[in-house]
Amino acid sequence: MAPWAAVVVWLLAESAWCASHLKFPSGFKFGAATSAYQVEGAWNTSGKTPSTWDTLTHNRPQLITDGSSGDVACDSYHQWKDDIQIASELGLDFYRFSISWPRLMPTSFPDEINEDGRRYYDNLINGLLDKGIEPIITMYHWDLPQRLQDHGGWSNPLIVEWFEEYARVLYKLFGDRVKNWVTINEPFTICTIGYAIGAFSSGVHDPEVGTYLCIKNVVMAHAKAWRLYDKEYRKQFKGRVGISHQLFYLHPTSEEDEEIASLAHEHYVRAYDFYGFNYYTSRKIRRRRDGESLGQLSPMRNIKELDAILEVDRGWDRAACFWFYVYPEGIRKLLSWVKNQYGDVEIVITENGYSTKPESGSNDYDRIKYYRDHLEQVLLAIHEDKVNITGYTAWSLIDNFEWNDGYTTKFGLYEVNFDDPNRQRTPRASAKYYKNVIQTNNIEIPKKFSTITDEL
Ligand code: GBH
């Protein structure tokens, strides 16, 4: 090979494997996220009525690792000024949070707006805007009004209209200031975990029928809410409405399994104005072998419809949650997959983050490494694969109620002291790392973060 050719090969290899010289394009936005039930607390005050998660945690605490609930959680209902303060300290471009449907609409329907609830969200939105932080609202992050669940919840087709009416209230109340909406967080999780296991929001165990009714109605509800905005509000408010899907990358076990991997990714549906993309983990996928049983039905174990087995790679590191294996290349492969499948759709990464055990405190070098390695793959997707990614969201701004894990696994850039009545928030090393990424547009880990010292 001529020496110049060797240099070209080296340059190509270098750019493909190492992204440390790459930058996020101008206009790229960084944010962090939470959801109402996971942070707000104040579960039965100020006019709020119960959600499915209040019911589940109160009636069946054995389903939550530490028997806890979101009754108080981070008390963000009262500590919202602190949340704005730390979002501002981090230099976030946006903060993604969700609205509690039963807090805003205690009857579930538009006949009554709870003024306390409305004031809370107004304060949060206005406080963020005052600091130059864009509010991004998730309309539905799993805390369905219990009253609607009593009428079948997501398996009742009427929910499509109920959701549309809820969306209309949100657009009317907040649409003048909120320009980016996520209708529904993770349809796949709501319906498969909701109904296949029965230990999630719905509390109903019906993998045969419930899952499918739910998926259809969730997708229809999203479409209705999008259409409503498009027809009646877009001209006036000039905003956008998307949806967030959780995708885990499914790595074909052999060449034979490439088709099944692609079909399995198809399990997740398409989006509208933008594609909200939540990524945490990956699995290996292969066809079920003759005589092999599909085993326990769990969304991250296998796919019944495809007769596919999901496994983990022994080489992947683990985070604190039982389902969480680390495979940074998965996020890039999935981003490219979405582009190849759906065309040049705009993608906003609406969640990505890492869990630690409570004991690991605020010296969370493994979380920093997770963020660095995933941001590197996002940069490669942008520059090498030309995927149209416009934003990145860290999950989560603060430690919070991690669903069935309760408070036993932590996702926060800020640690929350759950023994303190004020739920004090303290930055972890990863908060400082993320702030540095936003400030410098450089993902490399500054020396001061790469050794664990008390100063952090
Ligand atoms: C996101 O879901 C959520 O949007 C967010 O609220 C949450 O705090 C965050 O991730 C961290 O978990 O029964 O084997 O499928 C991520 C998707 C779906 C992953 C439920 C864990 C349970 C394990 N999650 N899944 S399994």
Automatic annotation (TrEMBL):
It comes from the Eukaryota. This is Jg15733 protein. Keywords: Glycosidase, Hydrolase, Signal. PROSITE patterns: GLYCOSYL_HYDROL_F1_2. InterPro entries: GH, GH_1_N_CS, Glyco_hydro_1. GO terms for molecular function: beta-glucosidase activity. Pfam families: Glyco_hydro_1. The gene is jg15733. One of its GO terms (biological process) is carbohydrate metabolic process. Belongs to the glycosyl hydrolase 1 family. Residues 1-18 form the signal peptide.
